[in-house]
Amino acid sequence: MTKQQLVDNIKEKRSFLCIGLDTDARRLPDCLMNEENPMLAFNKAIIDATNAYCIAYKPNVAFYESMGSYGIKVLEDTIAYINEKYPEQFIIADGKRGDIGNTANLYARAYFKHLKVDAITVAPYMGSDSVKPFLEYSDGWVALLGLTSNSGAEDFQLQKLENGKYLFEEVIEKATTWASDEQMMFVVGATKAEYIERVRAIAPTHFLLVPGVGAQGGDLQALVAGGITPQCGLIVNSSRGIIYADSSEQFAHAAQREARKLQHEMESLLLQYNVI
Questions:
Q1: CB of 14 within 8 A of CB of 276?
Q2: pLDDT in tens, 119-176
């Protein structure tokens, strides 16, 4: 998917919501336990109920890998379902890959050629040769970890360098030389909204993938104030707050309600900042 297609979809749906498919087999509603494949049935129900209110889905690969071959098949089938039934959705594989040389090439092939996702999250710690193999796929995106939501971000990302910059600023600035805003976006945690203007000063036109709204406590209005661009420039993810809004037979309806609520808030912000 091109950047313009992503922007067009944001404007059409009046939303920049990404729904994280962090599907934990231990948290599935009891009503699905008689299904042939409860995990896949859950994902399909969530997707069918919420697709009108979001522009992206982000399956977190760890939830599927933890289930072995069964989980990998669910991941494959979930992505195939989105691609077939809702092809306008931007699919982000949250795998946080980051290895060098031939290994990175294989990860890139797995996600872009086999699974057919639009983007994958990549850790930049090992440098350019751990990122560039993903950029060889012209229709694929790298969502590079910039400043993450977790408390451990302070261990490295928020360390000050001798030049006065934070390490995360140095990483993002360097990464902008590896790819344009047509193929690279940066992950910035919603709980780090006070730094988002510093990210924008370095990457004024790149999309930012922002996890941490909802259960993790990120402030949507604050991050939009510092990060929105004339093309929106934001993909804001909510996972648990939507997909686990209810554990009864009404789980999909509850997820729809929470997605619609976020979409309405996003629509107001897009209007406020003259994006739509």
A1: yes
A2: 999 999 999 999 999 999 999 999 999 999 888 999 999 999 999 999 999 999 999 9
The lowest-confidence range among 51-60, 204-213, 254-263 is: 204-213
Place of tokens 């989105």: 82
Question: At a CB cut-off of 8 Å and minimum separation 6, what does 113 contact?
Answer: 137
CA–CA dist 94, 21 (Å, integer): 10
Look up 113 and say whether it is catalytic. Answer: no
Residue 33 CA to residue 38 CA, distance in Å, equals 6
| Residue partners of 173: CB distance under 8 A and separation at least 6 | 165, 202
The 3-state secondary structure of 183-203, one letter per residue: CEEEEECHHHHHHHHHHHHHC
**Contact in structure between 141 and 166 (CB atoms under 8 Å):** no
Q: How far is CA 171 from the centre of its chain?
A: 19
- CB atoms near residue 142 (< 10 Å): 24
Of 73, 96, 132, 165, which is the active-site residue? 96
SS percent in the chain: helix, strand, coil, step 5: 50, 15, 35
